[in-house]
Amino acid sequence: MVMNMEDKIIKELIKLSNKALKKKEVPVSAIITCNDKIIVKAYNKRERKNDVLGHAEILCIRKASKKLKNWKLTKCNLYVSLKPCSMCQEIIKQARIENVFYLLEKPESKKEYNNTNFIKVENIKNKEFKQMLSLLFISKRK
Questions:
Q1: Of 75, 93, 124, 129, which sees the most CB atoms within 10 A?
Q2: Residue 112: exposure state from Cβ atoms within 10 A (0-12, 13-18, ≥19)
Q3: Cα-to-chain-centroid distance, residue 24
Q4: What is the model's pLDDT at position 112?
Q5: What is the pTM of this model?
Q6: Where are the strands (E) in 3-108, listed by range?
């Protein structure tokens, strides 16, 4: 029996998630494809690496960027075992990934606890930073 690409990817996601579980990680896995070929795969390593960015999606994006020598992954698709969190969603968008396919939604009981406050600092030097950013983007558009 010949396995189609989707079945092959799902089988691999399960295998990777089992690896994560055995290493006491949240069993989330990710795969990036390009031109209908698996180019990279990863599973969560947040606990093992003691790294807040150790999510499977981010690890996959880093590997794919290195492999393709480009941070813009415009021709790539991402497959994930669990719908990406808000942090990963933003990184996925920044990486310009074309499509994200996920198997499961986050459980309703899983709440994100975050008490971080974002406070804008008003300072006379803000104009300098604004000018630097403007100059950079003007030079990139030329």
A1: 75
A2: exposed
A3: 20
A4: 63
A5: 0.81
A6: 29-34, 37-43, 76-82, 99-104
Q: In whole angstroms, give the CA distance from residue 45 to residue 31.
A: 15
Q: Is the pLDDT of residue 118 over 70?
A: yes
Q: What is the average pLDDT score of the chain? A: 90
pLDDT tens track for 76-98: 999 999 999 999 999 999 999 99
- Asked if 128 is an active-site residue, the reply is no
User: Phi and psi of 31, rounded to 5°?
Assistant: -140, 135
- Cβ neighbour number for residue 63 with a 10 Å cutoff: 16
Q: Answer for the pair 64, 85: CB distance below 8 angstroms, yes or no.
A: no
Catalytically annotated residue among 6, 47, 57, 90: 57
